[in-house]
Amino acid sequence: MSYAIGIDVGGTSIKSALIAPDGTVGLTHGAPTPRGVDALMTELATQIAWFEARAAEQDLDLNGRVAFVVPGIVDETKGVGVLSANLGWRDVPMQAKAVEYLGRPLAFGHDVRAGALAESRLGGHGDSLIYVAIGTGVASVLVLDGTPLVSGGWAGEIGQTLVTCPDTGDQIALEQITSAAAITRRYLATAPSDAVTGIDPATFGSREVFERAAQGDQVAADVIDTALDYLAQCFAQLVCVLGPLPIVIGGGLSGAGEALLVPLWEKIAALLALSPMPVISAARLGSNAQVIGAGLLAHGLGDGK
After folding, report:
1. Contacts 24+ apart (CB under 8 A), 231-235
2. CA dist., res. 287 & res. 55, Å (int)
């Protein structure tokens, strides 16, 4: 089996792996994400060297192909990292820099679009879908006939859609209500003090909010219900514009499973007067979706079928 190296550069950590063309994950490796482009290039070189050494030791068929994907606003059609406020770059010719620094060709892409590509190719959802990653923020990807839409790097930023805040009436970004981080934050801000006393914010997240809702915590249930109302309105509008493409939910919130998918389906159905209902499902590749997508890019499988 021939492997390529896929590298998923996250906001806090780098996840890399040997990936076969069928999505099989071989060796994996990781490291903290450095801040700054030069430091990132050094870390990419370290990751690649590690895999090459392990492949030689274990007599693995490594084909020499490498791809890396990064967060933020990314225009992979031009090889440019348009903006990553968290990691400290703007308008960086990321692919060209990597090729120059490493002295070898590398494929380049966006982390969420790579995850959407992997789900489209290997997740059984079909060649066209709407992939929505709900975690710290909310981002989406439109995949048509196996190819994610890029549009200069700005396609899919539904989390930045302005909505009316249910608490203040101000105009705020959708992700401030619907992301996993927002659900956690709103619960901690509105729950009675005795319900949150002793909670460690470092370990308490949206999963725990869903668990509390299932146990009868009304505040938790209300926070989740509000988030799903806003998500349903957004998704119903997407369906009316794009038709009933499958909607695939990835990111940390997808771990809520049926507690998320069933009420979300019901809320979307109530909003669609004419359009057929789309299939709504959780991402099937889990936390490996983005690194697998990077591997597919390395194999040259990211340009449609």
Report:
1. 231/134, 231/178, 231/264, 231/267, 232/264, 232/267, 232/268, 232/270, 232/271, 233/163, 233/271, 234/158, 234/161, 234/174, 234/178, 235/130, 235/132, 235/264, 235/268, 235/278, 235/280
2. 23
Q: Both tokens of residue 154?
A: 């700005």
pLDDT in tens, 124-173: 888 899 999 998 889 999 999 888 898 988 998 999 999 999 989 999 99
Rounded to whole angstroms, the Cα distance separating 49 from 104 reads 13
State the Cα–Cα distance between residues 205 and 87, nearest whole angstrom: 23
Which tokens hold the place of 169?
């009436």
Angle between helices 206-214 and 180-190 (to 10 degrees): 60
Q: Is residue 82 within 8 Å of 153, Cβ to Cβ?
A: yes
CA dihedral sign of residues 171, 85, 287, 25: positive
Kindly indicate the confidence band of residue 304, based on its pLDDT and cuts at 50, 70 and 90. very low
Do 87 and 33 form a contact (C-beta atoms < 8 A)?
Answer: yes
Contacts of 168 (CB under 8 A, 6+ apart): none
Question: What is the residue-wise DSSP string for 138-153?
Answer: EEEEEEETTEE--GGG
**Amino acid identity for residue 18 in this structure:** L
- Distances in whole angstroms, Cα of residue 29 to Cα of each of 37, 118, 152, 226: 20, 19, 31, 39
What predicted TM-score, i.e. pTM, was given to this entire model?
Answer: 0.86
Phi, psi dihedrals of residue 152, rounded to the nearest 5°: 70, 10
294 Cβ contact partners less than 8 Å away, ≥ 6 residues apart: 6, 7, 8, 19, 67, 68, 69, 107, 109, 114
Distance CA 60, CA 304 (A): 28
